[in-house]
C-alpha cells in the first residue's frame, strides 16, 4: 500500500489536487515549488515512497522530459481515479486516440482480463490519457497494466495473463500488486527463483513477493548502482 494508509491511495492512482495547494516538504526539507510546466488541471500520479502522512506523487507534463517528484497531503486531494475505475468504465472506447495500438489492445484484452477475476486497470501514459481525455499517446506507446493480487497467483493464472501479450500489437507490461509491493509478471513467469519487488522502502529481490518483504529469509535490498 501507499504510505498514506490503507484504502486511500495506491501507487499508480491518479489524484486531482486543490489548484491552490503547494507541494509539501517532509522531514523539514525546504518547501519545493511546482515546475513552471505544471498543468494544475491534470492529476498527479501516486508513486512509491514512505513518509506518512505525506503522499508521494509524480507530475507528468506533455513530454517525456517533464516529470517531477513531489509530496502532497490527504487534505489537498479533490478526487481519486484508480486504474480499476478506468477499466470498469471502458474509457478507451470513446477516447480521441482509440485507434492507436495501446487503445486497441485494451479493447481486445478487457473481457479476458475481467474473466481472470482480479482487479485490474491501465496505468502509465495510457491510463493518464484515458483519465484526462488528452491525446498524448504515440503509435509506439506501451500498454501498462496494474493487476492486484492479494494472494499468490496460481501457475495457470500466470500463464493465462502471460499469453495475453501474444495477442496485441504493442508492448504489454503487467505489474502485479501484492499489497507489499509490485513486480513484473514476465519476470515472475520466467521462474528465475527471485523477482524484483518494488516497495515503498525501495526495490528488493525476493523469492516470495507475497511474504513479508523485509524478512531476511525472503529478500535482500537491491543496492543502487554507483
From TrEMBL:
GO terms for molecular function: nucleotidyltransferase activity. The keyword Hydrolase does not apply. Residues 10-83 form the Phosphoribosyl-dephospho-CoA transferase MdcG N-terminal domain. Keywords: Nucleotidyltransferase, Transferase. The keyword Protein biosynthesis does not apply. It comes from the Bacteria. Residues 97-209 form the Phosphoribosyl-dephospho-CoA transferase MdcG C-terminal domain. Coiled coil: none annotated. This is Phosphoribosyl-dephospho-CoA transferase. It comes from Bordetella genomosp. 9.
Amino acid at each position: 500500500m501507499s504510505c498514506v494508509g490503507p484504502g486511500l491511495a495506491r501507487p499508480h492512482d491518479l489524484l486531482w489536487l486543490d489548484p491552490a495547494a503547494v507541494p509539501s516538504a517532509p522531514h523539514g526539507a525546504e518547501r519545493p515549488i511546482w515546475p513552471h510546466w505544471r498543468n494544475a488541471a491534470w492529476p498527479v500520479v501516486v508513486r512509491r515512497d514512505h513518509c506518512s502522512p505525506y503522499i508521494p506523487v509524480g507530475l507528468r507534463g506533455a513530454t517525456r522530459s517533464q516529470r517531477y517528484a513531489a509530496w502532497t497531503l490527504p487534505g489537498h486531494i479533490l478526487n481519486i481515479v484508480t486504474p480499476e475505475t478506468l477499466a470498469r468504465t471502458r474509457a478507451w472506447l470513446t477516447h480521441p486516440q482509440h485507434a492507436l495500438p495501446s487503445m486497441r489492445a485494451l479493447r481486445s484484452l478487457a473481457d479476458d482480463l475481467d474473466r481472470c477475476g482480479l482487479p485490474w486497470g491501465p496505468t502509465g501514459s495510457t491510463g493518464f490519457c484515458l483519465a484526462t481525455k488528452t491525446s498524448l499517446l504515440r503509435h509506439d506507446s506501451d500498454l501498462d497494466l496494474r493487476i492486484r493480487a492479494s494472494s499468490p497467483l496460481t501457475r495457470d493464472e500466470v500463464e493465462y495473463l502471460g499469453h495475453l501479450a501474444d495477442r496485441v500489437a504493442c508492448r504489454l507490461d503487467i505489474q502485479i500488486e501484492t499489497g507489499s509491493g509490485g513486480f513484473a509478471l514476465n519476470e515472475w513467469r520466467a521462474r528465475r527463483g527471485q523477482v524484483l519487488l518494488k516497495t515503498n522502502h525501495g526495490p528488493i529481490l525476493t523469492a516470495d513477493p507475497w511474504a513479508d518483504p523485509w524478512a531476511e529469509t525472503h529478500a535482500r535490498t537491491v543496492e543502487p548502482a554507483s
